[in-house]
Backbone:
């Protein structure tokens, strides 16, 4: 007798195989959901930090007229981002 999984749209030889496959699918889906949620939280942190940076920069320029940034050599360049990713 074959056992059909509605979730997987697949036949299995035993109910144990079906349950194991559905459990693995459920665990994978839960893990992927957790990763998506964590990514959303961290993306929000980056967005908040960027907004804070923009506010501070605007205040600095208002007070001093301009802002100059010099590199100390330890920064990530656009070249690194596009051609050497991941670091």
Residues:
């Amino acid at each position: 007798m074959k056992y059909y999984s509605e979730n997987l749209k697949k036949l299995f030889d035993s109910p144990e195989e079906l349950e194991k496959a559905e459990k693995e699918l459920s665990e994978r889906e839960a893990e992927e959901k957790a990763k998506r949620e964590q990514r959303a939280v961290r993306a929000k942190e980056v967005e908040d930090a960027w907004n804070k940076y923009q506010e501070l920069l605007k205040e600095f320029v208002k007070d001093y007229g301009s802002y100059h940034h010099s590199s100390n050599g330890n920064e990530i360049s656009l070249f690194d981002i596009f051609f050497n990713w991941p670091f």
